């Protein structure tokens, strides 16, 4: 099988149900979701196989789910059963609670940073927020799986919680925003 097809040379790409311009909001939404997935892989590579075994397992599951989300977002017209579900969102909430319990109580806003792993996970967080914004725009214009929006919203919270847990495991304090007061009590 050849990797190149030449079918996109004129600025269009295939989606489930037809062809669209490569700068279509649908393509931007699933393309940004794919970016998140790539950066999750980068974050995993920074982790120790034993020390971060649970994190690696959870993040690997998320990679599969991000691929599912991209497939859901790529559906334009032709309806197939969506893969991202409310159960996946609920499970993310459980994971958020578990990782949040590992980090010290939060008192100030947190800046991206601390350990290498935490920094990589914060990149995942902000890219997830961008993907979420694009999905909101897409949903306003075209039909799509609403659970993907919810999933991405929770996923960015997950990346925040796991980034803080990674810092705690590394013995590295979070980088607090010092120009404001204590905002969490």
TrEMBL record:
GO molecular function term, any single one: corrinoid adenosyltransferase activity
PANTHER family on file: CORRINOID ADENOSYLTRANSFERASE, CORRINOID ADENOSYLTRANSFERASE MMAB
SUPFAM superfamilies given in the database record: Cobalamin adenosyltransferase-like
InterPro entries, per database record: CblAdoTrfase-like, CblAdoTrfase-like_sf, PduO-typ
Record's protein name: Corrinoid adenosyltransferase
Reactions it catalyzes: 2 cob(II)alamin + reduced [electron-transfer flavoprotein] + 2 ATP = 2 adenosylcob(III)alamin + 2 triphosphate + oxidized [electron-transfer flavoprotein] + 3 H(+); 2 cob(II)yrinate a,c diamide + reduced [electron-transfer flavoprotein] + 2 ATP = 2 adenosylcob(III)yrinate a,c-diamide + 2 triphosphate + oxidized [electron-transfer flavoprotein] + 3 H(+)
Source lineage: Bacteria, Bacillati, Bacillota, Bacilli, Bacillales
Domain of life of the source: Bacteria
Species annotation: Salinithrix halophila
Pathway per the UniProt entry: Cofactor biosynthesis; adenosylcobalamin biosynthesis; adenosylcobalamin from cob(II)yrinate a,c-diamide: step 2/7
Cobalamin adenosyltransferase-like domain location: 3-165
């Amino acid at each position: 099988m050849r990797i190149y097809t030449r079918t996109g040379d004129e600025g269009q790409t295939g989606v489930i149900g037809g062809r669209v311009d490569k700068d279509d909001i649908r393509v931007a939404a699933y393309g940004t979701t794919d970016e998140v997935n790539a950066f999750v892989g980068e974050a995993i590579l920074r982790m120790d196989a034993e020390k971060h075994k649970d994190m690696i397992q959870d993040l690997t599951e998320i990679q599969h789910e991000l691929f599912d989300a991209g497939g859901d977002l790529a559906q334009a017209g032709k309806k197939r059963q969506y893969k991202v579900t409310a159960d996946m969102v609920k499970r993310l909430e459980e994971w958020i609670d578990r990782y949040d319990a590992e980090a010290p109580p939060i008192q100030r806003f947190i800046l991206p940073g601390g350990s290498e792993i935490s920094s990589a996970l914060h990149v995942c967080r902000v890219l997830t927020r961008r993907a979420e914004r694009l999905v909101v725009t897409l949903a306003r214009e075209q039909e799509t799986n609403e659970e993907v929006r919810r999933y991405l919203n929770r996923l960015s919270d997950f990346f925040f919680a796991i980034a803080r847990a990674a810092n705690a495991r590394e013995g590295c304090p979070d980088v607090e925003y010092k120009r404001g007061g204590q905002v969490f009590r």
